[in-house]
Amino acid sequence: MALALAAAMLPLHAVWPGAAAMAGEAPSQEVFDAAYNLGRSSFSSNCASCHGANGEGDAGPSLVGNALLAKVNVVTETIIHGYSYMPPFGDVLTDAQVAAIATYIRNSWGNEYGFVSPEDAEAAR
Predict the structure, then answer these.
(1) How far apart are CA 118 and CA 80, in angstroms?
(2) What is the model's pTM?
(3) pLDDT digits (tens, 9 = 90+) for 31-65
(4) Cα(123)–Cα(125) distance, rounded to whole angstroms?
(5) Does CATH place domain 27-124 in 3.20.20.70?
(6) Which residues lie closer than 8 Å to 41 by C-beta, 6 or more apart?
(7) Mean pLDDT for the chain overall
(8) What is the 3-class SS of the chain, one letter each residue?
(9) HSE-CB of 66 using CA atoms within 13 angstroms
(10) Position with higher pLDDT, 106 vs 25
(11) SUPFAM superfamilies from the xrefs (predicted)?
């Protein structure tokens, strides 16, 4: 747990090699995997209590096969600013963490919507 927290606090370029140079480009598999893994750990500690460990929903809506996840701006804005009963996480998560969580939920539980960059998260602020 301490290692995951330490990794989440690293600058983006330390977590996702080459991320600064990839704006607008499809990421390498290595970059995608790093984002996905950071997203999984960040989701577990910040989101699973409401959305369920497997995205099945509980206090929050199900993320399984959720078509709303197709829209990057909807996902990033919701994580950062909150929506309805969901609290905002913009003050506690970095752009890298927001992007990683978005990448994770957009590519888990039957969702196949692709990568979200830290620049996408920054644009939602």
Answers:
(1) 12
(2) 0.81
(3) 999 999 999 999 999 999 999 999 999 999 999 99
(4) 6
(5) no
(6) 4, 7, 8
(7) 88
(8) CHHHHHHHHCCHHHHCCCHHHCCCCCCCHHHHHHHHHHHHHHHHHHCHHHHCCCCCCCCCCCCCCCHHHHCHHHHHHHHHHCECCECCCCCCCCHHHHHHHHHHHCCCCCCCCCCCCHHHHHHHC
(9) 22
(10) 106
(11) Cytochrome c
Amino acid in the structure at residue 111: N
Can you give the length of the chain in residues?
A: 125
**How far is it, in rounded angstroms, from Cα 29 to Cα 13?**
16
Q: What is the pLDDT of residue 19?
A: 52
Beta-carbon count within 10 A of 105 CB: 24
Residue ranges per structural domain of the chain: 27-124
Exposed e or buried b per residue across 14-45, where buried means at least 16 C-beta atoms within 10 angstroms of its C-beta = ebbeebeebeeeebeeebbebbbbbbbbbbee
H or E segment to which residue 79 belongs:
helix 72-81
Task: Work out the number of other CB atoms within 10 angstroms of the CB of residue 100.
Answer: 30
